[in-house]
Amino acid sequence: MTTTSSRGRRRAPSRIERAAGKAAALQKPRVILALLLLLALTSVMLLDGYLRAEVGGDQRVRTGASASKVPDKVLDGGPILTFQGGQATTVSVPDKTIALTFDDGPNPTWTPQVLEILQEYDVPGTFFLVGSMVSRYPDIVKDMVDEGNEVGIHTFTHVDLSYQSDARVDREMEQTQLALAGAAGITTTLFRAPYSSETDAIDNYSWPIYKKLGEDGYTSVFVDTDSDDWKKPGVSKIIKWATPEDGKGASVLFHDAGGERSQTIKALPTYIEKMKAAGYTFTTISGVMQEQNAAARQASGTGGQQAAGAAAGANGEQAGNVPNGQGGTGGNGANGANGQTVDRLQAAHREATGVTLYEGKALIAAVTLAEWTVPTLSVGLMVVGVAVMGRFGMMLILARRHYRKRNKRRFSWGPTVTRPVSVIVPAYNEKECIANTLKSLAKSTHPIEIIIVDDGSDDNTSEISREAARALGMTNVRVIRQENAGKPAALNNGVRSARYDIVVMMDGDTVFEPDAVHHLVQPFADPKVGAVAGNAKVGNRNTVIGAWQHIEYVMGFNLDRRMYDLLRCMPTIPGAIGAFRREAVLEVGGMSEDTLAEDTDITIAMHRAGWQVVYQEHAKAWTEAPGSLKQLWSQRYRWSYGTMQALWKHRKSLTDKGPSGRFGRVGMPLVVLFQIITPVFAPLIDVFTIYSMIFIDFQAALLAWLAVLGVQLGCAAYAFRLDREKYRYLLMMPLQQLAYRQMMYLVLIHSCITALTGGRLRWQKLKRTGEVGTPAGVS
Amino acid sequence: MFVDNSGRRSKLLRRIGLLMGVGCLVYAVVLGAAFMGWGTSLAPSSLLPFGNGGPGGAQNSGPGGYQPQGGIGTPPSMPTGTPPSGVATGEPPSSAPTATATASAAAN
Hints:
The complex is a heterodimer.
Chain A: H1 2-26, H2 29-51, H3 72-75, E1 80-84, E2 87-91, E3 97-103, H4 110-121, E4 126-129, H5 131-136, H6 138-146, E5 150-153, H7 166-184, E6 186-188, E7 190-191, H8 207-215, E8 219-221, E9 225-226, H9 235-242, E10 250-255, H10 262-277, E11 281-283, H11 285-298, H12 314-321, H13 340-345, E12 349-351, H14 354-406, E13 421-427, H15 434-442, E14 448-455, H16 461-472, E15 477-482, H17 487-497, E16 502-506, E17 510-512, H18 516-521, E18 529-538, H19 544-567, E19 577-581, H20 582-587, H21 598-608, E20 612-623, H22 629-649, H23 658-681, H24 683-695, H25 698-722, H26 733-757, H27 775-778
Parallel strand pairs in A: 3-4, 3-10, 3-11, 4-5, 7-8, 9-10, 13-14, 13-16, 14-15, 18-20
Antiparallel strand pairs in A: 1-2, 1-8, 6-12, 16-19, 17-20, 18-19
Chain B: H1 8-36, H2 44-47, H3 55-58, H4 92-107
């Protein structure tokens, strides 16, 4: 009792320490940077989704609602609705006057064409802009305003506001104002609700919104004649529908966006010409209000001349309703310099200043960045898709061909190799494993000499090896001790001491199958073969991480190596099991300490020297894979960093001639594509899946993700079949793929950063448990 | 391979990293602010140069409930008179009294 409690007490601070350690790890600059990048990526994707109405989009449109609560004078009134001191007032367009209004823009294709037409005929228009489009195409809006057109708000995402909360309505308006401020340096007081048309279509649900916005100071603008151009009814019908009766004035609705608008573009010049010929003048919404205002003043408040002015007593208010008098606009209009006419036509505009202006500009910049980022990511995703699928296709074809070719009854490398070979076992603190390793070698069916190179171990590895050799009655074991100098030096030491012309290299923690050496050296019957890669198997596959690596090894060795073998550009002979021609190793200068992946380095060097490197699937060795995520991380970190070093070291092969150039032009791109580019972009599969699942189509996204998984699963199953492995480990595959993608990505980024900063990366020895036994015990 | 003993590269990269981090943070904050409408108040009534209680509310002695209180309900009330030259270039505050006078004169 006391013991446990005291132990518990003693343990408590260590737990805190551990938590503190984790907290400290989270504060590492690179972790913070990674999290910030993730935050920015999330923002970019959410923004992009919001702009495309994938995030927060709402397709609902209300129809057929009652209008019982809407005042009759509004329903029957003119198309311009303002609220004076809370009192609804409508203004109609004077006779023989047209206010051209364009909804849903800007659009990069059609809006510039509309603007050109308006310029040509020297008529102003009023554009009700969708904020998201404004932020995506700010230049068009700037031109639009500079050319003297008026702009109004058509919400940010073109939603039916009657379904939205007050807060959303406010946000839609403010966001659009910000976008306008960023694009053209103005804000506006004009508003038109999406899906609105004539005033008599106002219903009980939309009325409160007009009222609220009106009280905020917005002027809601409706329609007298609707061209219905979005129905694409043909030019003549558009013109007919847009024309008011009997010389009346009208606020006319066209669309410069939201679909294919060539009919609008065609109809517009004809329409303008026709109306001009009929004696009409063109103005903006503010222009209409000015005119009515002047008319009301002339009538000195005792009754209007215009039909819309019929609501007696409203005239005075109407007068006060004009969004901006000429007097005050001097400093307000976006282009006060253009003179008073233009000013009056853009009286609804306010100059954006201060925070609004800068925040607006920042918004535009943020949108621009998102508009660039998301397509780039999509290209990345496409690269991954093509790479993953292409690789699998290629692997399936080549692996099959490789399997058929090498397992043909009549296939042979040449006369059977029976001469003895040297097995080099570099060992650094391998006391747990070395005895097992020796035991497995003792059963070798091929004559061998064993050279254990003790790389300055301090755990009696040498003694234990000698002891084990004596116990096993092996006379062919030599133990060489050297000062701790690293694995490459130990291997070189072993190669120098080897008596035979073929050297087999293995790790101190690896266990060979009895016939492994025999199979491994057979390809040397072909004098062109300089090195052979064996088939490494994960021994400790009964943990989650072990199973992951098992899948990876089976796929990696079986499919990848078979493919690389046939393409004659194997990038790596595994350190766990590989054989070399001694002269070839010496020819390329032995193992080098230039890189952390000496196995990749020397394999590439062999290729460059013109030797063939092949894969021998039947030579099986059991190795102990990293048992924890942390160890796996550090192993992969070293591998990917080492691979990058090796690729960089041999970069000249790209321009070489002969076999070196061949590897440079075939092998290098493949390795770069599959081991660097693919892992960097692979997490995009999951990022886009999550995004699509949340915001677009849950089922379709999930299905797409599962389809990718299915392809991978199929390939893995094929690999398992070729290796005669049990399929049950494939159950771990979905999780493995998900976890591996993120881990390999992080590992790669980590090693890229290390490479860029030029930091020194040291060999880290993996912790061994020695649990990998003889093959029989494992399988 | 890749080892840089001078430490200059790592310093440069650290700076780039810092810059990127700050950039990312700023990006997220700007978007958040723009989305939520923080830091700006963009309803036209609050953008008006003439502030609250413009002449619009005073005229016609409309229903008391609709008297502008605070910012809400203040319409974009601007002088309706036509002083083409006098006030045109004036800053909003200086033109305010004149404008109000004109407007109320017109209303009365």
